[in-house]
## 1
Amino acid sequence: MEGPGHIVTFGESLIRLSPADHLRLQQTRVYESFFGGAEANVAVSLARFGLPVQYVTCLPDNDLGLACRHYLRQHGVGVDFIEMRGDRLGLYFLEVGSGHRPSRVIYDRTGSAFAAMDADAIPWREVFAGAGWFHWSGINPAVSAGAAAATAQAVASARQAGLVVSCDLNYRQRLWQWGAPPSAVMPDLVRQSDILVANAASPMLGLPDLPVGRNPAEAAAACTQLSGLFPNLRQIAMTCREVDPAGDQRYTAVMWQAGRLVTSPTFMIRHIVDRVGAGDAFMAGLIYGLVSYPDDPQRVVDFAAACAVFKHTIPGDANLAGREEIAQLLVTGNGYDIIR
Amino acid sequence: MEGPGHIVTFGESLIRLSPADHLRLQQTRVYESFFGGAEANVAVSLARFGLPVQYVTCLPDNDLGLACRHYLRQHGVGVDFIEMRGDRLGLYFLEVGSGHRPSRVIYDRTGSAFAAMDADAIPWREVFAGAGWFHWSGINPAVSAGAAAATAQAVASARQAGLVVSCDLNYRQRLWQWGAPPSAVMPDLVRQSDILVANAASPMLGLPDLPVGRNPAEAAAACTQLSGLFPNLRQIAMTCREVDPAGDQRYTAVMWQAGRLVTSPTFMIRHIVDRVGAGDAFMAGLIYGLVSYPDDPQRVVDFAAACAVFKHTIPGDANLAGREEIAQLLVTGNGYDIIR
Amino acid sequence: MEGPGHIVTFGESLIRLSPADHLRLQQTRVYESFFGGAEANVAVSLARFGLPVQYVTCLPDNDLGLACRHYLRQHGVGVDFIEMRGDRLGLYFLEVGSGHRPSRVIYDRTGSAFAAMDADAIPWREVFAGAGWFHWSGINPAVSAGAAAATAQAVASARQAGLVVSCDLNYRQRLWQWGAPPSAVMPDLVRQSDILVANAASPMLGLPDLPVGRNPAEAAAACTQLSGLFPNLRQIAMTCREVDPAGDQRYTAVMWQAGRLVTSPTFMIRHIVDRVGAGDAFMAGLIYGLVSYPDDPQRVVDFAAACAVFKHTIPGDANLAGREEIAQLLVTGNGYDIIR
Amino acid sequence: MEGPGHIVTFGESLIRLSPADHLRLQQTRVYESFFGGAEANVAVSLARFGLPVQYVTCLPDNDLGLACRHYLRQHGVGVDFIEMRGDRLGLYFLEVGSGHRPSRVIYDRTGSAFAAMDADAIPWREVFAGAGWFHWSGINPAVSAGAAAATAQAVASARQAGLVVSCDLNYRQRLWQWGAPPSAVMPDLVRQSDILVANAASPMLGLPDLPVGRNPAEAAAACTQLSGLFPNLRQIAMTCREVDPAGDQRYTAVMWQAGRLVTSPTFMIRHIVDRVGAGDAFMAGLIYGLVSYPDDPQRVVDFAAACAVFKHTIPGDANLAGREEIAQLLVTGNGYDIIR
Amino acid sequence: MEGPGHIVTFGESLIRLSPADHLRLQQTRVYESFFGGAEANVAVSLARFGLPVQYVTCLPDNDLGLACRHYLRQHGVGVDFIEMRGDRLGLYFLEVGSGHRPSRVIYDRTGSAFAAMDADAIPWREVFAGAGWFHWSGINPAVSAGAAAATAQAVASARQAGLVVSCDLNYRQRLWQWGAPPSAVMPDLVRQSDILVANAASPMLGLPDLPVGRNPAEAAAACTQLSGLFPNLRQIAMTCREVDPAGDQRYTAVMWQAGRLVTSPTFMIRHIVDRVGAGDAFMAGLIYGLVSYPDDPQRVVDFAAACAVFKHTIPGDANLAGREEIAQLLVTGNGYDIIR
Amino acid sequence: MEGPGHIVTFGESLIRLSPADHLRLQQTRVYESFFGGAEANVAVSLARFGLPVQYVTCLPDNDLGLACRHYLRQHGVGVDFIEMRGDRLGLYFLEVGSGHRPSRVIYDRTGSAFAAMDADAIPWREVFAGAGWFHWSGINPAVSAGAAAATAQAVASARQAGLVVSCDLNYRQRLWQWGAPPSAVMPDLVRQSDILVANAASPMLGLPDLPVGRNPAEAAAACTQLSGLFPNLRQIAMTCREVDPAGDQRYTAVMWQAGRLVTSPTFMIRHIVDRVGAGDAFMAGLIYGLVSYPDDPQRVVDFAAACAVFKHTIPGDANLAGREEIAQLLVTGNGYDIIR
């Protein structure tokens, strides 16, 4: 077990299956696979940054569940509280687009070990012993009623145990099939959290009038507005991608903290190896920054934004980057070199 | 649509995902995929032998379901009665063993489009118009209560429409999770069929005393015994694999017809490319033989056994063989040559 | 067979063999293959858009010819009139360039089943029964004297049968080795057609003074001029690629119809997965548009241009796109997103 | 850290690089890699059998060393005492033979982080705190003078700390380049060990008259003779491969314990996926057996032999098998089945 | 240029295209390629054995022809007399069988640069300056009338220049399409040769009563009979494969020399990596043996047989073996070991 | 051997091992390999341009050394003076970055056959017989004291034999571990050379005040300054990459000759297949240009710059381009087309 102050993340793990070389799903006979899941990605990135982290989930007790568990262990994530039970590991098929063709996801996660969880599946008191931080995302309550109930228990327990609680809204339009809409579930949970990544806050929190946040100014406005609505939040962050007709993306992050807004540099993203997990990389960067530079919000948002940008260069769902690489990116502003 | 006398098969389609080069599931990052499913395999083999065939199933209306449909069409199978609905395509993960390590299957087919079918999902009257033969297997009722009910309707409708009905018992120990045991469902359906491939008849039909059929003599005894118990059956066939300590397999098929037993040559199988689907290849060979050589049971069982043997040389679930190749194998008795 | 009004396309099918990952032909030991051929590509795209289509060609009666036939069937193309005869399937080797290195093609199609065809190889009367549209391209008469003669018969028969006839000039400098230059063959055939894609009209039709069409204005001028020279043509279209020094391409299509010129939006193409077949995608989009929106030439040219742009994102020769994807591209103007 | 009684193994880790599909080194452009090293393989197998184990080595502090460390962690091996220092990770190139062509190894391990170790590189007292078993092999002192000295310290410390000490002689003719011959180093170390796998004892221990052990009878004689020469040894085991002209191998293990000889079943090995690491699999099986069934030497040698046989079916250097699979093999005697 | 006494081989080079992993041609999207051609294979093997050798052929002057030329140069074959002209490089598609499925070849070599050659395409006087040996095979005259005429010129020139002339009959049923049957062409050319590999002599030389040579005794009889019919021949060799029902092959070679018959050991071949080119490996071994051990026919036939057996273990068409490996095989009689 | 006037290059050869598809070293199980080494790359490019060239190095006498030797021979490089001795072939692992992630090299070349060379390892008099040009780079003396001494002998011998001597400074920060800093070794060797590629001249020649050369103007200033300090130099060239925030590179070369400065066009590089070896491609282009167009410095620098730009499109270390392709690039200014 980790020492006092370690971080706990909780969520569903999935296998991603993708055709190689931009083949369409209808063309491929071969799939490349990666393990993913938003909170698992956050855990992996934090472990690689050197922070102690435990990841909590349910995995089926078969070779796929074990392979997922081993993957997490390989990257230094604590797996002491992973429950090995349930019938299947969730999957998603990812057709990787390019240029004018968007990437497309087919979810196949219904009935997964995580979705089949009931409210008190996880012994939260035990899990949180000695922990200092709890991170969850809006995907958890989107998956099933049971997962939503377990998430609610988790947030309440974390709060009770005095942990810092962070949440990434992580809107996924195609989930939320189990009955309740996000706006019926999320606001209460966000009210028990300290830190929020607030992209798509409008549908997730039932705030139709909130600015969408397509550019830094709008995002700043949205963060400020949210700080009024959720006075419990200590930090509120959003990220923006501004895309030009040829597909170049201008990536910027904004963070509100104690009435002050800080904005990261704008990065120009042109060549993308793998976009999936950029938001999780941002989230991990944010947590790392808030833990490491609690008094320097500018450094926090810069580090988090650089994490998201760096993730675009790495195959798979997790940001397998080191701290020094992120720091280096903030110095040079671009890559495109050979270090030899 | 096919002309009068075409064959209809009905069952579930699955994607198989396998690591390459005998890697274990816990070692792989890449999966090779094939479409399979017992009755789909039978349909593909029959189409390649030149018989008109329609395959009936439910597939999800997404890129995976469409890819499966296109695969069937590619090989000449009629897809006019495939229902595009439901949530997911069933999967199975196949770890390919070798030598002293058996192959292992992880099924992930719960909640598939096929399993979610209800009793009257398929317009059987329409499907059977102009058809002459209906084939199903014991996997169908193993999958879910709905699929079992639909299968019962299918068999009854086929019988009513005057079709020849063939059944492969296809025992799968890990299925049959929905409530009823096979012995509560299968006997009645078999009683409405004309032709039976009877491997594992003991658990499937609730006949604990039936010989298991590990060698041709035992198989012959079992067939004879079954002919007494199910007097409706016109042909009863079984296949045996006798394995020596180094893994060589002696493969023989036996068929009972009208009180007479015929036995195929025994083939020695040493090098296996892909064993999955050998039973379906046998089934297709049996149907092809019964249609083509109705008066020559020896030729029928020889052809069917050679189909199963040939299948071991072909990657994937279906026996992508031509009639001439099977005929050639029966002449030469082995391969190991270069035709140039 | 398809119902009245289906489309017939006629041309040569080829196997493309390419090294992966931008390797040069002199570096590779492995080739990726795709089936292609201009008119086959048009047929596949139309079938995927939901229009009934028959593709006519000659294929050798071996496993390669059959694999090609099955490929077409897989994508829903009718193969009822494919003649299985001749010695070989044409090939081409494609070295895929990048950046400052152009892609290079080595044709190996001499003596193919298609090239060996004689004038009356195809029973056109039978083929055109119930058909409404015939499409051919300038590659057919470029291949051999026999193919040229068969094409002439096809065009004449189609005209006689009252079909709409469309032609893509499809200039290939390295073909036309059999004796006649294009300008001796094409003008007469174009005079019997209704719709023309007119890129490279100058060498193909022997019109040295025609504007080349490097930009939309020039293309418009060329279309107008052609409309005067070939008054039989109801629609004349051209496409332009304007390339900047870093390789970005600005892609625009122009169409003349009944004295009116319409111009598509200009798409910026930066990241190319596979450029081969973009012209065929355009052609299929044009046919689909003219069939579906006969009174809206702007919509036609927009749809066709978007097809060509979308094709750049798909590996292989054919535009494996759905109608909705093309429609979506016209709404958003770019991709670069994840649909999940 | 592990609890009291855990196992410690110590040795060099290497990257194996192999061409795929039996290509020769002079033909390949692509290498498959696995991490290996005799004692690392033993550790991985023990961890997968569920025993607590720490692996001690030196790895360079670069991405290759880290990847190796992560690989061990992935499979559940403790990495708390791995020293991250030195210049390079040792490599070996393995050309995988087949049939009449033997496999060939090119070692490239000179100057590795492990070889560059000096006598007191490892804090053995700390390492052995709470441990119950120490395993080393004859490869360690073969690598360099420093590694030999460190091994001597390790064995002495382990003995002093009261641990059980096991040794696999692991003769490698091409190593031992640093000065001393094996017979000058090994006997003294073996005299401080409790358990010995004694293949190639003749060159390793300087006993020219010892039977080589090509068959079980000879192996038994050699074990008995060794028990007289090294009265400290509690268990002495040897394995034999008897190869017939077609390459089938008859594999048998023999163990001497307290004056009694036990012999495993003889396994017929015909199809080999990967032979490397079979000896390490045997060693791990032996340790597992001695820990788990201390009073049943027959069960120990059977389990160990089955481990070695099973390893031939798994790609890579380590025996990624579970206990149950080994137990199952001992029951069925062969594989060649599909578990579904 | 090589010194006096070098060897010249003459024939057609081809690209082989094969699906991987035993996929059928109708299943694959990827082809592995190797350069081959009987006489090129002989040249490569001789060069790797250390003998100076020039290979004469025609190759198209494109990237494929150049890649083939570079391949030969890579392995040390002299390419000074390769003519770069003609339209295409011949191809063949090889579907690799296994077990009961034979391998199948689709030739696509009509119209190749070699086939298009005319009688005096090669400046034989220049080519043979300083050479000591000329090797050709029965494939050359099978390809086209021009190639047959050029071969006749080559044999006559070689004889005139006093070279040793060797011939491998190399029967290919599917070639010989240009008009003359083999029996009309070959006998005269064989009469001008000194050494003959005589498999399939019956159809190639028009000798219907000659024993076929399925076992060593029959082969010996055939060689003896041929020595009477062709008294010019100094050595006549044949090879036999006796296949058992499980596909194991017993491989033996027989050679007649000056009235004496020598027989190689019989090798048991069970696991085959690639059978293509085994005959060419035998031929190269025979030439190497006759050059190196002119007074020891037993050693010659043993070496040649071992070359053929060893070739079964190497991917591709050529026997990339060293002399020492062949010698080693003759000592150990089998492989199945790891040299480390 | 080559005729009078051939070129000799001297340096170390390495195997490059890279993960595919931008995977990180910690993610990959498969490595792609290429042979490289600065001076070997120059030799390969010159041989493909049609100039006679011998490459001098030491390679280990194992399958890797032989494979490297064969690779050079394949591309037409003379290998007559390669010494087959020493223990190992140097390696480097290349993690290929993308976008904001730089590529990273792990060198593993210590103790290589080249590094282990002593001062008089190469018989330079023999090597230089009939040669006209000697090329070396600053990597040679960076590797080891022995290699530095051998390089000094080479340069002195070449000068004495009246050869033109060219040098590429080729700064590699991580080498130079053997004792002397570059500034203690290089100036004297540069003083004996005629042509210099002078990137990173500041650290290599100990000139802290020299302009770094980030843009053409600075580069021109540096060249001019160097021409004063090293009056022996007849040509001094530098190349600049100006990178914008999205990673596009503007590539320009500058050359000083006899007091005159010439500047190449500026190429915009956006899509990079493989950047390694661009400097070597430039060097080969410079040598080719100086040999072919001795009176046209503008043509020389244009050709050399186009070589470097073209190299970015080719996988591997060497510029496998033909002269005509480079000439074509100078005409069109970009690629992005299909030549068919």
## 2
Amino acid sequence: MSQLGPVALDAMGGDHAPQATVAGAVAAVREGFPVILVGDEARLRPLIPAGVDLPVHHVAQAVAMDESHPVAAVRAAAIPSVTATMRLVKEGRACAAVSCGHTGAAMAAGLLVLGRLPGVERPAITMVVPRTDGGRLVVLDLGANVDCRPTHLVQFAVMGHAFAHAVLGMAMPRIALLSNGEEPGKGEERVREAGALLAELDLPFIGNIEPTAAFRGGCDVLVCDGFVGNIMLKTVEATAEVVTHIIREELLVHPSAKAGAWLLRPALRRVRERTDYASQGGALLLGVGGVVVVGHGRSDETAVRSALRYAARCASDDLVARIEAALRGLRVAP
Amino acid sequence: MSQLGPVALDAMGGDHAPQATVAGAVAAVREGFPVILVGDEARLRPLIPAGVDLPVHHVAQAVAMDESHPVAAVRAAAIPSVTATMRLVKEGRACAAVSCGHTGAAMAAGLLVLGRLPGVERPAITMVVPRTDGGRLVVLDLGANVDCRPTHLVQFAVMGHAFAHAVLGMAMPRIALLSNGEEPGKGEERVREAGALLAELDLPFIGNIEPTAAFRGGCDVLVCDGFVGNIMLKTVEATAEVVTHIIREELLVHPSAKAGAWLLRPALRRVRERTDYASQGGALLLGVGGVVVVGHGRSDETAVRSALRYAARCASDDLVARIEAALRGLRVAP
């Protein structure tokens, strides 16, 4: 897929940057995914092994809070690396952008530089999470937007549907609204109004759904306000922590179960991998004029590599054009 | 605590009623907690063992949907058993009410018969859940109210605080607002406004909190809108299911871990007990003029007995008077 151009990586963003970002980029390049690093060349170059084709787009660091020569620093400093990363996509020099830095900054830079797609009032943070039936669940919005209006939820539904179809290859992804009950009269006002709007559209909308049914496979695209979605996501992480805590505690209390403790270690690691969604390779910012993957701040080399591959795949699946087309359809339909 | 009078139990409410309700009541009576059953005497009497002092307050069943003699049925039928249960509290013939029937019906009957305490616009469903630090977390509202206004959240905070103090014996329960970030600027509009209001009151309010921090022990009273709280609660249940599913799957896939499978069974049962909050004995409906415990529809004998003991304890701790006093303080404070 090199005809698409490389994925631009904000090499300075993330708790373990630039070591983890460069290492993840090197791994991606070795797998055949071209990458361009964005950041301070003097710091990045020494981390790139000889013989690896990994170009660097140089931008100086932002001015530090304790900078003692602010004027000189401002003259030297260019735009932040995350903004420069988005610009490479805007200018067609990269097919997608990845940042594991500050999520809010990545969202702001993506929106500022790439703009919103026609028909999108608010871009949405979108993730794919595993279901107990072995399927995958697309969830949006997970925190980009609070105080959503019903029309925002409708736009999320259209974008999530297009993504599930184009990137995940689902023939007819079933859309549902996250709610506290399945009946149409259930839910907060925003959900009830969004349900009425979605029922009018030519989409496989199946109504309200509760978390348990959604995780079991009751729908493929789960739509919610960003406040509720973010709390749901963090509750999943918190509960996984509580449950593994209880299991460890129980195994220590009951001597007969102690033997199971070490046998269980791989299983508990797998729980962490499958429920700590944030470290899995990132979330998509759907609704901006380019592919933007926002990785978790904790991302290690593996997570960075996953994020880069994910971004390249979304670009090669023509995600943005497909979402744009779906949104065009939406505006005509009602 | 028999000077308080018995706890009134809606013996007809619940998936396993009246067998489970009567069995739970018998167990409670044998432990010294007086109970009065409310329901169809002809069906209840045969279930009560000889020598157990368990009075029955007779009410005919509601008219069935397929009733062929509606007029006669209406003449014969009295009020629904759940309403009759609340009436016993209102009339001072019982110290508290318990129902494991339809949650919405129990809430409606509680509100209708017992009324709201002065200063309460909306009663709140309140639960106590375990934290990983061994402490307990009071959470409200868990589904009684959607589309809450900021002042409703403030009232929930005051009621939750009074409950944690009076019933759980916490010296200074720390109150927090459930949010998608801890900074005061985070959260949906309702949360930001409630935070500003709570900061003005003479309460140990510590600000916003995320689910992970709350479950780890970052606060004692967690306040949220009923829509968000209900989804959080159901996400906990769903995640616990997903996690135990993953663990079972892993134990089957890896031969070396298979031996751990049966060793782990008690631990997984304990996870279910500690995360399936709904079956633990019930939720309190705080803010009505009496102690009302709403048990889960699935309640078995043990859950019914727990709910009855919980209700008796709340009554003997003078919960309603204490919440009323706390609310009086609230109206004066700002």
